[in-house]
Design goal:
single chain, alpha/beta, seven-stranded parallel beta sheet, 7 strands, binds NADPH dihydro-nicotinamide-adenine-dinucleotide phosphate
């Protein structure tokens, strides 16, 4: 086993899968989670080519599944914990359209509540590593000051809540030497970003990984884009 281990939460497709690919190329042992390992074609293909990849099941909203996952990792160290899983929820909700309570709850549950639960449950493994990096994938949509177009109440607020919680968590764990960054990955061509997005997965992921190399140049809890620009809260 190599001395560097990364854990990517929500790695079945899109940006999460891109993290797995590039981290493997960099020689990291990669712990990748997805909801249905047996159906995770791209991840299984990578695992057939690389002994460095491990795949675990994790529905992020399932606390029992999180507990089982964490128990399997007992005694391990995670240099980079990358919390990436996210959902846009129902698209097109704005003033005049029905605001559904269950959509708000589900999007908050995945994007915000699950992220802080995962960070809290796995942070001791990050603490046991050399790099000690906690990374959460946020969005420009979580920035209140950048919001000029309205709409997307659930997604926007869930990412604002993610920022608030992870920032606070970053302060709580900095004494253990843990360094935390929140990233806006850019507008990325994925199922979520759509085909008109501005950049591809490889560009976004390599930008964020480059910044992780120099993570401690930024204050812990910083909210940054994939190219290093500071994001407004
Ligand atoms: P995708 O929709 O392509 O992928 C989302 C990933 O999250 C999938 O692997 C999905 O798993 C996983 N996921 C969603 N819900 C759950 C859940 N309940 N439990 C476990 N895994 C779950 O999105 P992207 O790759 O584009 O997005 C990745 C992150 O980047 C998200 O946090 C997103 O908010 C953020 N982001 C993306 C932008 C973009 O332009 N693409 C812009 C700004 C932020 P499954 O395959 O099983 O559904």
């Amino acid at each position: 086993m190599t001395s560097k281990t990364a854990c990517v939460i929500g790695a079945n497709r899109g940006i999460g899968l891109g993290f797995v690919e590039q981290l493997l190329e960099q020689g990291y042992q990669v712990i990748a989670t997805c909801r249905h390992p047996a159906k995770a074609k791209a991840l299984n293909k990578l695992m057939n080519k690389s002994v460095l990849l491990e795949i675990y099941p994790l529905e992020v909203t399932d606390d029992k599944a999180l507990e089982a996952f964490a128990k399997q990792l007992d005694g391990r160290a995670i240099d980079r914990l990358i919390i990436n899983a996210g959902t846009a929820g129902k698209i097109g909700v704005r003033h005049g359209n029905p605001i559904k309570r269950n959509n708000l709850q589900q999007v908050f549950n995945v994007n915000a509540i699950s992220a802080i639960k995962i960070a809290d449950r796995l942070i001791d493994l990050v603490s046991a590593s050399n790099e000690k990096l906690l990374i959460a994938i946020s969005s420009i949509m979580g920035s209140i000051s950048d919001n000029t177009s309205g709409g997307s109440y659930a997604y926007r607020a869930s990412k604002t809540a993610l920022n608030a919680m992870i920032y606070s968590f970053a302060l709580d764990v900095r004494g253990e030497g843990i360094h935390t960054l929140l990233f806006y990955p850019g507008w990325v061509k994925t199922d979520m970003g759509g085909p008109n997005a501005l950049i591809d997965v490889a560009t976004s992921v390599s930008g964020m990984l480059n910044m992780m190399e120099n993570a401690r140049e930024y204050a812990t809890g910083s909210f940054l884009d994939y190219a290093g620009a500071k994001m407004d809260w």
